[in-house]
Write a structure and sequence with these properties.
This protein is mostly beta strands. It contains one helix and twelve strands. The strands form three sheets. Strands 1-9-6-11-4 form a five-stranded antiparallel β-sheet, with no helix packed on it. The longest helix has 12 residues. The radius of gyration is 15 Å and the shape is globular. It starts with 7 loop residues before the first strand and ends with a helix. Bound molecules: thymidine-5'-diphosphate (TYD). The site of thymidine-5'-diphosphate (TYD) has 7 residues, from β4 and β5.
């Protein structure tokens, strides 16, 4: 599990002069079953979200509207992805520290998640995450 396993998934697009349509099917377009959907919205300028990692959760992040940056860190490598299309999903595997910033005005960040909310699945402290991430990489 590294940032190389986190990639942009090009979701199906049904282009239509009445408006475009995109859909996501669990197990077909993304490698997990969807148990939860949540979204960030009304994000004030300059705000940062994320700042945590998950032990077992798989997620797909979609910029439903507007744009933002996602910074990924697996304990060894880092990369930043600019999200600005509602037909691209960023798959984030477990054991990845993520931070989200640079939200545009009106941005909506939707997340499809493989499990229910569980605070015990979080690393909230970067030092604790790095400690365990290094063990996983070894
Ligand atoms: P958190 O995941 O820390 O947000 P961020 O995107 O900034 O990392 O969640 C913020 C708060 O919302 C925290 O108190 C937990 C709560 N929360 C839920 O109750 N259910 C959820 O599905 C999520 C994602 C968060």
């Amino acid at each position: 599990m590294s940032i190389h396993d986190c990639s942009i998934i090009d979701l199906p697009r049904i282009n239509d002069p009445r408006g475009n349509l995109t859909f996501v099917e669990a197990g077909r377009h993304i490698p997990f079953n969807i148990q939860r959907v949540y979204y960030l919205y009304d994000v004030p300028g300059g705000a940062e979200r994320g700042g945590h990692a998950h032990k077992a959760l798989h997620q797909l992040v979609i910029a439903m509207s507007g744009s933002f940056d996602i910074h990924l860190d697996d304990g060894q490598s880092k990369k930043t992805i600019h999200m600005n299309r509602s037909y691209y999903g960023l798959y984030i595997c477990p054991m990845i520290w993520r931070e989200i910033d640079n939200f545009s005005s009106g941005a909506v960040c939707m997340v499809l998640a493989s499990d229910y909310y569980d605070e015990l699945d979080y690393y909230r402290q970067y030092a604790e995450f790095i400690n365990d991430a290094v063990k996983v990489i070894k």
